[in-house]
Amino acid sequence: MSDPSSPLRDATTHLREAFGAAQPEHYAWQTGSPYVAERERELCERAFLPLGQRVLDVGCGEGATLYHLGGPEGAVGIDLFEEKIAFAREQLPRCTFLTASAYDLPFDADTFDHVLVRDVIHHLEEPERFLSECARVLAPGGRVDVLEPCRNNPLILFHALTQPAERGELRSTPAYLRRLLSRDFNVKTVQRMQAMPIHRVVFHPRLGWPRAGMNPWVRGAVHAVERLAEHVLPRVAWAYIHVRAKSDECAPSEQREQREQTAQTDHSEQARQTNQSAQPGPSEQR
Q1: Which helix (H) or strand (E) segment is 278 a member of?
Q2: To the nearest whole percent, how much of the chain has pLDDT over 90?
């Protein structure tokens, strides 16, 4: 008999090989590199502000997102890998960091009023299961903000095709994310962000020329190209998708009851229509 948990173990192994180790140099690049850190801060603030009172950052990695949001006191970050969590604890002492799976969040229902999800969904084999967990720990009326790459962008498409660990980006579209979140939340807005962030390539610590970020002329040229892209590139091809959604005002148990009642009503209506169509017409009765 096959083990139903084996696909999850395989996915975890895959993620561990690609992302299991802490990457201090990547954190430093995101938070301290000229121009890159500024663009990262703008992206995080636009996607996640204003913050709620009880914040959960799922897939927090080394903590860069919470860093750009000011390291809010009492915010909680979780990641699958202890090495990343240990690093994040050193960087952001006012926040709490825990090692946990996105599929099994170690919190009671209604614990948070704001859940942040950045660059997580395209790595998951079961994103629906994860979002159901987010709905469980989110208080009635709470907010979830999702930030994901968009496959329609040339940089993202190239990234997905050349990096096996990023293949999930190929399914990442606004329609896909809206459909996912609509199962458990009320989607409020879907936005596109950063048209063509070439700075992520030009100044990348491994793929690019990070020292060029110290040159104001180079930074100015990159900024000019990115601003131009905002005017000429269709928004459908911008690099990031931001989805903002809210949980229902009623309690999760009431939400489930409402969904079950709706499903039962739909089933009853479908059965009634089927019975009607199966009844013989007047000519057949004769």
Answers
A1: helix 252-278
A2: 76
Element (H, E) at 147: strand 138-149
Residue 78: alpha-carbon gap to chain centroid = 13
pLDDT at 152 over 60: yes
Task: Please determine, for residue 5, whether its predicted confidence score (pLDDT) is greater than 70.
Answer: no
Residue 249: its pLDDT value, please?
80
Structure tokens given for 70 = 């000011």
In the DSSP assignment, the letter for residue 141 is E
Closest to 154 (Cα-Cα) out of 64, 217, 232, 212: 232
Q: What is the pTM of this model?
A: 0.83
- Are the CB atoms for 17 and 79 separated by under 8 Å? no
Q: Measure the CA–CA gap between 132 and 118, rounded to whole angstroms.
A: 16
User: Looking at this protein, which amino acid is placed at residue 81?
Assistant: F
Return the sign of the alpha-carbon dihedral for residues 168, 204, 31, 155: negative
Q: Which long-range contacts (CB under 8 A, 24 or more apart) does 178-185 make?
A: 178/243, 180/121, 180/127, 180/128, 180/131, 181/131, 181/144, 181/146, 181/243, 181/245, 183/128, 183/131, 183/132, 184/131, 184/132, 184/134, 184/135, 184/247, 185/131, 185/135, 185/144, 185/245, 185/246, 185/247
Are 79 and 61 in contact by the 8 Å Cβ rule? The answer is: yes
Peptide bond into 50 cis (omega under 30): yes
- With CA atoms as reference, report the closest residue to 208 among 150, 155, 149: 155
